[in-house]
Amino acid sequence: MENSQAALLTLGFLLFLKGCETLASEHTTNLAVGVGEDVQLEINPLVAVFSVNWYFAYTGLAIVTWNGFSETVNPQYQGRVELNKNTGTLTLKNVNRSDSGDYLYQAVSTATGHPVQYNGSIALNVYQRSTNLAVGVGEDVQLKINPPVAVFSVNWNFGSTGPVIVTWNGISETVNPPYQGRVELNKNTGTLTLKNVSRSDSGDYLSQYVSIATGHPVQYNGNIALTVYQPVSQPTVRSNVTDPVEFNDTVSLTCTASGSAVSYRWFNGSSVVSDSERIRLSDDNKTLTIPRVLRSDHGTLYCYVFNPISNSTSEAFHLIVSYGPESLTLSISTQKPIYSAGSDLTLSCSAQSSPPAHYQWFFNGAPLNKLGSQLNINHIQHNQTGNYTCWTYNNITLKYAKETGEIIVVELITHVNVKPSLAQPIANQALNLTCEVFGSQAVSSRLWLKDGQPLSASDRITLSVDSSVVSFNPVLQSDNGEYQCKAINPVIDVTSARYRLEVYYGPEQVSITAPDSAAEGSSVTFTCSAQSSPPCNYTWYFNGNETAQSSQYKIASVSNADRGSYTCVAWNSVTGRNTSVVKEFIVTGLGSLSSGEIAGIVIGTLAGVTGVALGVYFSVKLCRNNPHDLKPGPAQSSPGSVIYENFEGPSASAMYENPTAIRRAGEAKNPDSTYTGLQFPDQSTYSTLNRP
Fold it and tell me: Do 126 and 94 touch, CB atoms closer than 8 A?
């Protein structure tokens, strides 16, 4: 529907144009703008328009069309143009050199009461803005057209009213006599080379050139501002005084250098010196003045000179201001109120002084045969307790100062040890950790640490009055960690080596990971796992007979003989505890066996389970008398998974995973086969395996 309406409107517009009675004469306008600018192309005369079309003559492309109802923009100009629908003005944004050319417009206005058509063109010249160049005396410089294009003709002038330097009309070249032998023109790019320039060559160089690279003649204008400089020389710095004294002298530093358009800058080290309340710079920055120089003015000064083509820095000028000695300080390498016997100490004396001050040391008022700002005392002893004085003076200012410090020496703690009451702590037993201190008996306090953090006491974890013993009653797995004891006296604090507390426990949560059944010929892996510290040992029993000692038991090819009860016994040699778990395993694909054979297998399995149970019972009896002399054996066997801890006999807790697995396996394979003989209507056979 919308397309139909647009078509009707366009048809009406064409009929409207056909009825135009007046045709205005064509009008041409010339515009010149710089690269990157926005330009407005206006209809002349400026009237209210009903419709307008804009074209780029070089390509013949319609840029934009407004028929009084809708606007159409060429995709190549999307985002680059804007049309004022009242005046017909076209704004072209961010122009470049390729936008140079003629722009044509056709507009219809009804401002006079009847339709009037206007035709016109605008010649747009996009040129590069002027370029600034700076070179040194005696150098060669190239004046380039920017951007480089192939030229048909070119003229170079010195200044807007100055002489023509060179002209190339596309056929012949003409060089102004004063420039003979000093210029070269590249007739392809229009580049002008000016040789061996002097200060008098400074000025504006104007270019007018025509290029036909776009397929039609386009005229360009360019401007290059050239400045020729004399390079600067290395500057020198002179001072009005030597060896200035604080508060007494005013220092003036003067910098001199040769060259043209020389600028001056002062640096104190790497920092720029600027005019301030205390530092005064002359108008040309050549002279730096410091009234009543201070010690803060001490430093290394440089004079830096530069112009647009060169720069140079003076040799370093060291400004040294004499003062002091003042602010005398006495420090010790390890600053403490009390020092341990055998320590190596270094006493250091320092003062603010220029030139550096001289130092002399005294002990309890008597001079020591030691000069210099440091006094080293190796392996200090108790009889060296006393007052140490540093005396200093400046042989230029003739000022003196002294400072005294006291040193007290006591014995030190040599080392600290954590001693456990049990070599192998077992969970739920009592445990004491004792902090043993050696060397000095003067222990101010003890601090217990667990994993680097202060140990927190509780109802279960208690400390003795002097914190020398920490008691765990009972000790638990959560107490595992690294324990340290820090002993502190007035001169030193020593922390013990880390004692690693590992509480032994288990085995707990013993389990077998394996399938409940497998087909004949397949491979099966039984994996036994338990929580235990240290890691426990595993023993496997099949139908009451020991088969392997490992956490895994593998059957490469399952056969009917592998059907039955698999028992894993986990044993911890430290805690003396053992726990077992039973897994009932069914072999599928037994279609070739008779009902009598299958019944025999079941009866044999039950007999084996009963034997294992009796073995466990008597083993537990022996374990209670001497648990460490008993090798772990299998627990009572039953269909499913059974767990026993420390072999408590037939009354141990049992969990049956799949009591009817055999019957289900037979029914799933062939419900009509002789396996129906294995369906026990009376469950009393299994009841003998249940917990009493």
Answer: no
Rounded to whole angstroms, the Cα distance separating 291 from 248 reads: 9
The answer to whether 113 and 48 have CB atoms below 8 angstroms apart is: no
Within 13 Å of residue 125, how many CA atoms lie on the same side as its CB? 17
User: How many domains does the structure of the chain reveal?
Assistant: 6
Number of neighbours of residue 357 by Cβ within 10 angstroms: 25
- The reply to whether 510 and 471 lie within a common domain is no
682 in any annotated domain: yes
590 strand-pairing partners: none
| pTM of the model as a whole | 0.39
Q: Measured between alpha carbons, how far is residue 381 from residues 169, 339, 411 in Å?
A: 103, 9, 9
What's the CA dihedral at 365, 366, 369, 374 to 10 degrees? -10
Per residue in 458-516, pLDDT tens?
A: 999 999 999 999 999 999 999 999 999 999 988 888 999 999 999 999 999 999 999 99
Same domain membership, residue 542 and residue 472: no
Dist CA 211 CA 431 (whole Å): 101
- The helix/strand/coil state of 431 is strand
* Cβ neighbours of residue 157 closer than 8 Å, sequence gap 6 or more: 163, 164, 165, 205, 206, 207, 208
CB 1, CB 55: distance < 8 Å: no
| Residue of 211, 175, 177, 210 whose CA lies nearest to 193 | 175
C-alpha distances in angstroms, 447 versus 438, 439, 485, 487?
16, 18, 6, 7
Looking at residue 516, its amino acid is D
Longest dimension (CA), the chain: 134
- Among 349, 375, 400, identify where a domain stops: 400
For the stretch 420-472, pLDDT in tens is 999 999 999 999 999 999 987 778 899 999 999 999 999 999 999 999 999 99
Adjacency order of strands within the sheet including 469-472: 415-420, 431-438, 469-472, 461-463
Ramachandran quadrant class, 56 (left: phi over 0; alpha: psi -120 to 50; beta: rest): beta
Cβ neighbours of residue 625 closer than 8 Å, sequence gap 6 or more: none
Question: Which DSSP letter does residue 259 get?
Answer: S
Please check whether residues 388 and 534 belong to one and the same domain: no
Q: Could you tell me the residue range of the domain that residue 32 belongs to? A: 2-127
Query: Which tokens go with 349?
Result: 């004396």
Same domain, 635 and 596: yes
H-helix or E-strand spanning residue 686: helix 684-687
Q: Rounded to an integer, what distance in angstroms lies between the CA atom of residue 179 and that of residue 135? A: 18
Q: Are strands 545-548 and 453-454 parallel, antiparallel or unpaired?
A: unpaired
